[in-house]
Amino acid sequence: IVRTKEDYEHLIMVIVFCVAKMGFTAWEVGGNRDIGVLAPNATEENAISAHVASLLPFFMVKFIRGNRFQKLAVAAAIPFCLNLLVLANSRAAIVGLLAIGLLSVFLFKGKARFGIIGTGLVMTNESFRERQNTDVSDNSAQSRLYIWAGGWEMLKDYPMGVGGAAFAYLSLDYCENLKGPKSQHNTFVAVITDWGWIGMAFYMAFLIMTYKITMQVKWRGRFHPALSRYRLDSSAVQLATVGFAGAGMFHSRQYAEAVYWVSAFAIMQFNTQKTEIYYLEQGLDPFTGEPPEKPAPAGEDETVLANGAGSTNGVNGIPYNLPAPDDGRQA
Questions:
Q1: DSSP label at 39?
Q2: pLDDT surpassing 70 at residue 83
Q3: pLDDT tens-digit series, residues 85-135
């Protein structure tokens, strides 16, 4: 259960290590279009690479703000994750990564921006372009256009949606030039054909509300400088959401668990920040909720300080382990 900012940081670090492990596994056993790893609701290359690409913004947060160990771990893991994307050879993941890169330029400054540019250079070199063209024909892109057009015709007949997984069974009736049943290959087409207009409205409201929560977190940080560190976390959620949306233009990801993880991260940030604001307004430490430590009065005798002056134990402020001051009276 995430109750504090520290809990949230631990959770994100676990996610980062798990995604990094996917990169290491792909390097050890993966090959072109067969990367050898699975993820929640992601059992093939397009889905796995979209999963990894969309969670890379959290790597950036740990690299910028983490301790030395976290920085080194992230720096070592990112090349393996990029290698996974190259091996997956997925248009969906690349579109998601490009969406993240474009938005990052406006959200980040300084060394974070240099990291984004470096990633772009790696992903656009000649060897990657050659691999990206491998086993990808014009028929693949053309078939998506047929599928999306068929989805529109299907929606006319089923405005309330056909239900999950039913599109593939009906695709041959609505989509031209298909050799077999196909899925929508587009998250938004999948949502509106599976769930209908009402489902599409709820799904878009879900994405918009996630973005709205991140903006509220950033807005609060402007009025409470002690909470400005949340801006980086909120930017990571915004980038991940955009990454999933971008990847969703070429792959159906409405059932991907990670999409809903990211929204949950935004809610965690909102709640932990709200708790810290309450502590600040009550004059408490925003991290622990405890009263702040008061400094000892200036000019107090050093011997008294060494023996515990200021303690609440004792009589009239005199600690039990100190003798009473001599006022000239004899016992």
A1: B
A2: yes
A3: 888 888 888 888 888 888 888 876 655 555 555 555 455 445 455 545 544
C-alpha torsion sign, points 281, 284, 287, 290: negative
Token pair recorded at residue 130: 């050659």
Give the distance from CA 6 to its chain's centroid: 16
Asked whether residue 163 carries a pLDDT value surpassing 70, the answer given is yes
Burial group, residue 147, by CB count within 10 angstroms (0-12, 13-18, 19+)? buried
What tokens were used for 90?
């997925």
DSSP state of 4: S
Give the DSSP per-residue string, 50-92: HHHHHHHHHHHHHHHHS-HHHHHHHHHHHHHHHHHHHHHT-HH
Phi, psi values for residue 41, rounded to 5°: 55, 30
Other C-beta atoms lying within 10 Å of the C-beta of residue 18? 12
pTM of structure: 0.78
Distances (CA, A) of 315 to 298, 318, 324, 329: 22, 5, 10, 19
Provide the pLDDT for residue 221.
82
Question: Closest Cα partner for 110 from 156, 64, 74, 150?
Answer: 64
Residues 6 or more apart in contact with residue 176 via CB below 8 angstroms: 146, 149, 150
Q: Are 96 and 259 a contacting pair, CB within 8 Å? A: no
Q: Give pLDDT, residue 268.
A: 94
Residue for token pair 């983490």? 66
Helices 68-88 and 111-123: crossing angle in degrees, nearest 10, is: 30
pLDDT tens, residue by residue, 25-61: 888 887 666 777 777 777 788 888 888 989 999 998 9
